Amino acid sequence: MDLPSNKRILSAAQPTGEAHIGNYLGAFKQWVALQDAGNDVCAMIADLHAITAPYDAATFPNTTLRMAALLMAVGLDPKKSVVFIQSHVPAHTEAAWLLTTITPVGDLTRMTQYKDKAKKQKTVGAGLLNYPTLMAADILLYQTEIVPVGEDQTQHLEFARTLARKFNRQFGKTFTEPRAFVLEETARIMSLTDPTRKMSKSDLPASRIGLLDDPSAIPRKIRAAVTDSGTAVNPKKLGPALTNLLTIFATFSEKPFRDVAEEYAGLGYAVVKSALADLLVDRLAPIRNRAEELLWDHGELQRILADGAERAATLANKTLVTMRKRMGLLLPQNE
C-alpha cells in the first residue's frame, strides 16, 4: 500500500480497555509508518469520545495516561508528531457545538454506530448522538487532509466531509475536505478464546494479548488458546484457531504465512504455542519497557502532553477563530 507524504493527518485512539496486538497491527503500526513517511501527524487520545459510553471515572485518568504512553512506546515520536489529549484542547468542544447548529438530527440518528451502541446502553446520552459531530470537529479543526480509519469509521468520515462542504457553502471557505486512508488489514487477528471473532479490548483478558501484558502472562494466554481438532500442524488442513495462531506468528516474525505453516508442518500444537509465546515476549518487550519508562516519570509524561496540547491548540484555535468570524459571532477584543 502506497503511503501519502507531506500531508496533515489526524489519528485518534480512545483510552478505554487495554490495547492489544490487533490494535497495534491494524492501526498503531500504520500510524507510525505515516509519521515516518514525512507526514504531519496529530495523534489524539480521544478521552471526550470515550466518556459517551459507560466508564470508570476513578481509573480514567490513569488509563488516559497509559494510552498516551503506549502511543509513544509503539513509535509515535512527540518531536515529529503532535501527541495530545483531546480534552486538553478546549477548541474541540466549542467547534463541535458550532457544527452542531448546522447538523440535522436525522443524519445523526441514521449513523450505524449510534444505532448499534444505543441498543447496548440502558440510557442513551446526547453525547453518543453527537459523537459524529465532535469527530468532525476533531478532524476539521486541524485542516486535516487525510484521516486513517478502519472500515467501520468510513461513515463518520463521510459525515465530516459533508459538514465541511455544508459549512463552506453557508459561511465561506473555511475547512479542508478530508480524505480517508483506509487502514490495511495486514493480518486479521482473532480472539484466542473464539477464533470466529476479532480480538477485542472489551472481551475477557484471556482472549487477547495486550501490548502491555506482563511477560509471564503471554505464555499462559497462548497455552490456553483454543486449538482445532487434531494434534499436529497440517498446512493443507488448517482450522480457524490454528490459522489465527500462525497468522500472529507470521506477522510478528515478518514471514509469509505459508512459510510459517510449512516450517511447523507435522509438529504438535504445543510446539507452535511455545515458539509463538517466545516470539511475542521478545517483540513486545521494547514497547512494554518504553511505556513503563514513560509511566514511571509522570511529570515528564505530563510535560510532553502539555507541549503537545499547546502545539495542537495553536493549530486548532486558528481555525476556531475563523469559524467564529464566518458565523457572525462577536469576537473578544483580544482576538
Descriptive notes:
- The chain has 335 residues and is mainly alpha-helical.
- The protein has two domains: 8-187 and 298-326, HUPs (Rossmann fold); 213-293, Orthogonal Bundle (Tyrosyl-Transfer RNA Synthetase).
- Helices cover 53% and strands 7% of the residues.
- The chain has 14 helices and five strands.
- It has helices at residues 21-36, 47-50, 60-73, 91-100, 105-109, 112-120, 126-129, 131-141, 154-171, 217-224, 240-253, 257-263, 269-296, 298-326; strands spanning 8-13, 40-45, 82-85, 146-149, 179-182.
- The strands form two sheets. Strands 1-2-3 form a three-stranded parallel beta sheet. It has a two-stranded parallel sheet with strand order 4-5.
- Strand 4 (146-149), helix 9 (154-171) and strand 5 form a beta-alpha-beta unit.
- The N and C termini lie far apart (44 Å).
- The mean pLDDT is 93.
Structure classification: mainly alpha
| CATH homolog superfamily of the largest domain | HUPs
CATH architecture classification of the largest domain: 3-Layer(aba) Sandwich
The separation of the N and C termini measures 44 Å
What is the string of SSEs from the N terminus onward? EHEHHEHHHHHEHEHHHHH
* Tally of helical runs: 14
Strand content: 5-15%
Global mean pLDDT:
93
User: Spatial order of the strands in the main sheet?
Assistant: 1-2-3
Write down the Rg.
Answer: 22 Å
CATH class designation of the largest domain: Alpha Beta
Helix content: 40-55%
Give the domain tally.
2
Shape: elongated
Biggest sheet details: 3 strands, parallel
CATH T-level topology of the largest domain? Rossmann fold
Total number of strands: 5
- Uncertain runs with pLDDT below 50, 5 residues or more? none
